[in-house]
Amino acid sequence: MTIAGYGDLASAFQTRHLTAQMKQDMARLGQELSTGRKASLASHISGDFGPVAGLEHSLKLQSAYAQSVNEAAIVLAGAQTVLGNVQDQAETLSGNLHLAISSQNAGLLHTTGVDARERFASVVSSLNTSLGGRTLFAGTATDGPALADADAILSDIMTAISGETTAAGVADQIDDWFKTSGGGFDISGYQGSNQDLGPFRLSDGEVATLSIKANNAEIRDVLAAFAKSAVIAEGALAGDAEAQKELLTRSSNDLLSVIDDLTSIRTGVGRVEARIEEKAASNAAEKSALELSYNRLTAADPFETATALQALYDQMESLYTVTARLSNLSFADYMR
Questions:
Q1: 55-59, 61-65, 210-214, 320-324 — which one is most confidently predicted on average?
Q2: Does residue 1 have a pLDDT over 50?
Q3: Using CA of residue 249, residue 251, residue 252, residue 254, what is the dihedral sign?
Q4: What is the pLDDT of residue 40?
Q5: N or C: which end of the chain has fewer CB within 10 A?
Q6: Helix, strand and coil in the chain, % to nearest 5
Q7: pLDDT tens digits, one per residue of 116-128
């Protein structure tokens, strides 16, 4: 009987080939175990990259939407905080004005005017709030303040009312300065853009916007209401306590009205915030579903990979053992 076998050179080449192949397989399995992904994706999906490419594109879109949703949530939360601060200032000043109006103390009128001026400055500062280098109430002009400095605004107003000697005249001039199109407020008060801040894309076909600017009619009304009492501290109607009291009364009545307007604005912002929160949750759920599908196509099962790696290690160890024994085999041992 003829027995076919390998020569020494052929055996050496075969051993080297097996060793190289096992090392390559071990490197591949080690990579899959560490990354959790198939090393040869093309082989795993039989060359059909369409579903994988589609899922990768959708995941990138979801990441972009998540960033946009997060930015929108930050901006809307900041706007809500600012509007809340403005409303708190209006409510506090309204209460202080009631006390001053009912008092017969002329000094209290001036003190209340000083308080109003400080609160007016606080409101202006709040409306100039910037988050992450983006001014909230300046429309698309996000790189600068929405309003001029409070002192500059009051200085312009004092010039406008300088010829008035009655509370009605002062109040009307202040209203004209703030509310007339192309008037003092548009010229030197508001420094932002007339275009709303660009929309935030929440998902395909759905956006969120912050359409409130510091030159909106409601905000103009707020500033005018504060200014009517703040000018008392600047010397408006000085020496005429009754006229000052009447002006504070007008300011108080206007504040009561703008407080309701601010409540409505904040309610609208709250609705957008709720929609953003809902969209964030739905986007997160959709992203999880996409990641699950993507993992089914590309992920390497860690248990199977570890098992295959261990089996390959045992196989290589056996090959080294046999090779070592063959290399030590002598002619005398062979003939036994």
A1: 210-214
A2: no
A3: positive
A4: 55
A5: N
A6: 70, 5, 25
A7: 999 999 999 999 9
Q: In a 10 Å sphere around its CB, with 0-12 CB exposed, 13-18 middle and 19+ buried, how is residue 42 labelled?
A: exposed
79 and 269 in contact (C-beta within 8 Å)? yes
Tokens 């005249």 belong to which residue?
169
Whole-angstrom distance, CA of residue 329 vs CA of residue 331:
7
Residue type, 292: L
102 by DSSP, 3-state: which?
Answer: helix
Check residue 210 and give its pLDDT.
Answer: 86
- Contact criterion met (CB below 8 Å) for 212 and 269: yes
CA dihedral 104, 109, 115, 120 (to 10 degrees): 130
The Cα–Cα gap between 127 and 138 comes to: 9
Please state, in angstroms and rounded to a whole number, the distance separating the CA atoms of residues 36 and 264: 52
199 by DSSP, 3-state: which?
Answer: coil
Contact in structure between 148 and 177 (CB atoms under 8 Å): no
Nearest Cα to 124, choosing from 279, 16, 230, 246?
Answer: 230
Domains and CATH numbers, the chain: 53-291 (1.20.1330.10)
